[in-house]
Amino acid sequence: MGGNILSQILILLAGCVVVLSLVRRFELPPVLGYLVVGMTMGPHALGLVSDTSAVHVLAEIGVVFLVFTLGLEFSLAG
Q1: Are 30 and 24 in contact (CB under 8 A)?
Q2: What is the signed CA dihedral for 56, 10, 1, 43, rounded to 10 degrees?
Q3: Of 10, 12, 11, 34, whose CA–CA distance to 22 is shortest?
Q4: 1 near 11, Cβ under 8 Å?
Q5: Residue 44 in contact with residue 50, Cβ under 8 Å?
Q6: For the segment 25-53, what is each residue's pLDDT rounded down to a tens digit?
Q7: Sign of CA dihedral 69, 61, 23, 7
Q8: What mean pLDDT value characterizes the chain?
Q9: pTM surpassing 0.85?
Q10: Above 70 in pLDDT, residue 2?
Q11: CA 1, CA 51: separation in Å to the nearest integer?
């Protein structure tokens, strides 16, 4: 499908909206929804997101956000 990174991001965001609404209905953690979206929309399943370089960039951004979120959870004051 789309070759540029913007179309890949929009496809992933649309998938996240749909899957996360289902995940919240069953009261499961949102991380499971993100994993399901990544596994089903990736190049090895449905192939909706086929540009692996765009997926790699998005994965690096996701890891940065994950580390930032983990840093907010821990406090230095004990």
Answers
A1: yes
A2: 40
A3: 34
A4: yes
A5: no
A6: 999 988 888 888 888 888 788 888 877 78
A7: positive
A8: 83
A9: no
A10: no
A11: 9
